[in-house]
């Protein structure tokens, strides 16, 4: 079956531009997570959705980062006024469980490069 | 605050050898400890996981050893193969209001030489 998909796979943005990264979770999955993975590092939690509700956004590094999941399926991570330190791979993961950490499926990620 | 520390950062093993990756955690509230495998250009994929009520779990060539008192756990890959060459991440999770989000270690890049 189809896994988690993300688009675009690669994005190059000039400093100061806004970007939008899309995540299509596995159909029917309740939980959706966004993680940021810097080069050579482990993924770090950004935000969590249970259906359309954003229950935790404590990992978002600044108010330039915004995420939504309006209909409880597709999610978009938006970064405004991109900075060089935003360069990373952004991973989306979904889970059929409310306690999503116990069974999490990752997408391939979007590699963002800010020049 | 790095709650999960992983070592070594890189590891080279001969084909057929045993690969061992170690992790240590700080928060005793963690109740789920998975290992993820990541190939270049791909997202992490769950390999094997353990809960703190058991000391060892084995699935095929992969074994997790868990030491609750030391707050440490490790991944053993027996009969390592070139196809195992990837980056491995340990992680930890606990019941909270963030859907039990995962806290990852820094990763270990494993290379298995033929």
General description of the model:
The complex is a heterodimer of chains A (115) and B (114). Chain A is mainly beta. In chain A, 0% of the residues lie in helices and 48% in strands. Chain A has no helices and eleven strands. Chain B has a single domain (4-113), classed as Immunoglobulins (Immunoglobulin-like, Sandwich), CATH 2.60.40. Chain B is globular and about 45 Å long. Classes of the chains: A mainly beta (115), B mainly beta (114). The interface between A and B is medium-sized, with 31 and 25 residues.
Q: What does this entry show, briefly?
A:
Chain A is mainly β and 115 residues long. Chain A has strands at residues 5-7, 10-13, 19-24, 31-37, 44-50, 53-56, 65-68, 75-79, 88-95, 105-106, 110-114.
Give the helices and strands, then pairings.
The complex is a heterodimer of chains A (115) and B (114).
Chain A: E1 5-7, E2 10-13, E3 19-24, E4 31-37, E5 44-50, E6 53-56, E7 65-68, E8 75-79, E9 88-95, E10 105-106, E11 110-114
Parallel strand pairs in A: 2-11
Antiparallel strand pairs in A: 1-3, 3-8, 4-5, 4-9, 5-6, 7-8, 9-10, 9-11
Chain B: E1 4-7, E2 10-14, E3 19-25, E4 33-38, E5 45-50, E6 56-59, E7 62-67, E8 72-77, E9 86-92, E10 103-104, E11 108-113
Parallel strand pairs in B: 2-11
Antiparallel strand pairs in B: 1-3, 3-8, 4-5, 4-9, 6-7, 7-8, 9-10, 9-11
Ranges of chain A where pLDDT stays below 50 over 5 or more residues in a row are none
What is the strand content of chain B? over 45%
Count of the separate structural domains of chain B: 1
Helix fraction of chain A by DSSP (H/I, runs of at least 4): under 10%
Order of helices and strands of chain B: EEEEEEEEEEE
Counted beta strands of chain B: 11
Q: Helical element count of chain A?
A: 0
SSE-based structural type of chain A:
mainly beta
The most extensive contact between chains is:
A-B, 31 and 25 residues
How confident overall, as mean pLDDT of chain A?
95
Beginning-to-end CA distance, first to last residue of chain A: 37 Å
* Fraction in helix of chain B: under 10%
């Amino acid at each position: 079956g189809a896994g988690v998909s993300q688009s675009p796979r690669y994005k190059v943005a000039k400093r100061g531009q806004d970007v939008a990264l899309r995540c299509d979770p596995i159909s029917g999955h309740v939980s959706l997570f966004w993680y940021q993975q810097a080069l050579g590092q482990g993924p770090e939690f950004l935000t969590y959705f249970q259906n359309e509700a954003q229950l935790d956004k404590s990992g978002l590094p600044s108010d330039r980062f915004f995420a939504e999941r309006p209909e409880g399926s597709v999610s978009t991570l938006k970064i405004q006024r991109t900075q060089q330190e935003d360069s990373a791979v952004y991973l989306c993961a979904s889970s059929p469980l409310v306690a999503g950490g116990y069974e999490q499926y990752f997408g391939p990620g979007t590699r963002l490069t800010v020049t | 605050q790095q709650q999960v520390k992983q070592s070594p950062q890189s590891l080279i093993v001969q084909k057929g050898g045993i690969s061992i990756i170690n992790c240590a955690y700080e928060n005793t509230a963690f109740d789920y400890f998975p290992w993820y495998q990541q190939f270049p250009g791909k997202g992490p994929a769950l390999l094997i996981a353990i809960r703190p009520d058991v000391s060892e779990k084995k699935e095929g060539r992969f074994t997790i050893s868990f030491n609750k008192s030391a707050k440490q756990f490790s991944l053993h890959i027996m009969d390592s193969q070139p196809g195992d060459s990837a980056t491995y991440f340990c992680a930890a999770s606990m019941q909270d209001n963030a859907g039990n989000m995962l806290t990852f270690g820094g990763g270990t890049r494993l290379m298995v030489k033929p």
